[in-house]
Amino acid sequence: MKKLILAIMIMSVIFLTACSETPEPQPMPPETLDEMVEESSWAILSEMDINVYFDEENTQVIITPEETLNEFHFVEIEFRSRPLGGDLEGQYHEWYSATVIESRDELLAGESFVTEWQPSSYQVPTHGIVFWYDAIRKSDGMPALYQRFFAIRQSEYDGSLYLTELSLGWLSSYRTEVTGILQYSGREVVSVYVTAWSLPPLPGETYWRSYWDIGGLSRRMSDNSARRTIEILSTLEATEVLTPFHREGQHADAMFSIEVNYVDGTNERVQTVEGGPHFFRFTNTRGNHGDQGYVIGVSEELNELLWTYF
Predict the structure, then answer these.
(1) What 3-state DSSP class applies to 219?
(2) What span, in angstroms and rounded, lies between the C-alpha atoms of 295 and 154?
(3) Do the bridges between strand 69-83 and strand 92-107 make them parallel or antiparallel, or are there none, so unpaired?
(4) 234-282, pLDDT tens digit by residue?
(5) Is this model's pTM higher than 0.70 or not?
(6) Separation between Cα atoms, residue 189 and residue 220, nearest integer Å
(7) 265-299 exposure pattern, b = at least 16 Cβ within 10 A, e = fewer
(8) Which of 132, 143, 190, 222 has CA atoms 20 to 30 A from the CA of 54?
(9) What are the CA-CA distances from residue 62 to residues 51, 155, 298 (Å)?
(10) Please, what sign has the CA dihedral across residues 61, 66, 71, 75?
């Protein structure tokens, strides 16, 4: 009996000791995938150093990174502003447009990129660099590429150069101002159709009618309406975006689409954004994430004309 009691006491001590051990602390995961990506990118950048300075004669700019930069671009920067209409009248959409001047597939660590350039303003940057760099994503430990955009500024105190980061949300891909958005402008037109993909609620209803409700409702435009539609689409002040960044792509569902049929058998399609009088046509070009290029312009008159058919 004494041996049995002793055995029970020993087992109790072992059990209590095991229960009192403190478990290893587990790190709390970030709340979202975006947060994990952002943490990773900023951690890498905090350790990255890019030296930018003038040569001895102050006629050339020398850029030397301490980390390899992929798809390195030396760009000319233009600050652009466009007034907003409707409920946002009096406000402005502002962004930086970057035009590529010189490029390298990669700029190796310690390698110098040398270019001729003389800054023209202390306040507004005129040139900068855009590049991709390798990082390890914290969410899954997989390699990933991150893009950054830096403006080159000159100190108004001693004339030295330094970098300031610009938000990629304000960086626009290369774009050109053009007239008209039709690809085959000038060809003889045989017919023009307008199709609605989303319409306002019927009387007594509260929900907009979607594609599933109206099934892509099409109307052939009258000769006068078709003629005016072609005139507007051919003379519209537009912007050509051949290689859009991913966030600049046209991904939303169209409210209207216009099909132009020509006598020679060719045709083309113009569509609106999800809301508002913006009209665009896709091109056969792609951006760096595979998003289709496009030509886009605004016409309140054409938007109102399309509504008369529904």
Answers:
(1) strand
(2) 36
(3) antiparallel
(4) 999 999 988 787 768 888 778 899 999 999 999 999 999 876 789 999 9
(5) no
(6) 13
(7) eeebebbbbeeebbbbbbbeeebeeebbbbbbbbb
(8) 132
(9) 8, 16, 42
(10) negative
